Fold:
Amino acid sequence: MIKRRVHVAAAAIVRGDGRVLIARRPATVDQGGLWEFPGGKLAPYETGFEALKRELSEELGIEIQRAQPLIRVHHEYADKHILLDVWQVREYEGEPYGREGQPVRWVDVDELPNYPFPAANLPILRAVALPQEYLITAEEVSDEVFLQRLERALKEDGIRLVQLRAKGLDDEAYQVRAEKTLALCREHGAKLLLNADPAWLERVDADGIHLTSARLMALKGRPIPAHKWLGASTHDDEQLTQAGRLDCDFVTLSPLAPTPSHPGVITLGWHDFQQMVETAAMPVFALGGMTRHHANQARGVGAQGIASIRDFWRDDA
Structure:
């Protein structure tokens, strides 16, 4: 039996205080009583953005001033294939309310997992909770220089997601750096993931683990608890599929563009990157030659944002 395909535009509406608007589905409809991000099906010949504007006006009484692509989610139900075309909305006119009688609620991002959502919404919850920039630390010899550059990225550049990558350190030195990095991240409200064996979470209570592609492919199941963040490095469709199988919360996908550190390496390019992101089961950060100037382009082709070392780890101090 050929499944019917349903294309839905949905909005993650973010208020000035960072809370997100969710609405509860009527009890009489499919998956009634669950919470969702406001939106609805595309009408014939509508684009996703056109449908979003119409649905938010009809459902919530607001007019979108500006929206940015957040994530596109493909999900298979028993009777249908659904595509959720999700946009992030921060600028709008009016005060949202349930025009059709549906309950609506402003919720802290950290509280979203406490609400029952349809299964297709899980990647959206992750995308809403993640920032648009992911700092991968450089390998510095001196802890003092390392912490100076990290603090500048956190304080001046507003970085809120950090991967500690320090392959050149032995276990003792790595633990010292990890603990100092975690303290600094906590001070500035940032999340820290360790690029290390998942067992390191027993020694350093970081926010999660970032798997290398080799570790990713060697695992049979998710190696850390659900309340910790699990990221992974991916470079092809096979690794993206494995990341979905392990229930990774997000991945980096590289190399998108040439980088000075890897001259001559074959890159994905924007077209192939977009095709791979389209079928990914989680948010994807673009990595490889990325700077803040590429952020909007990356979001436009479906990425969560950009990951970088050199653009966030400046040595001009």
Summary: The longest strand covers residues 63-76.
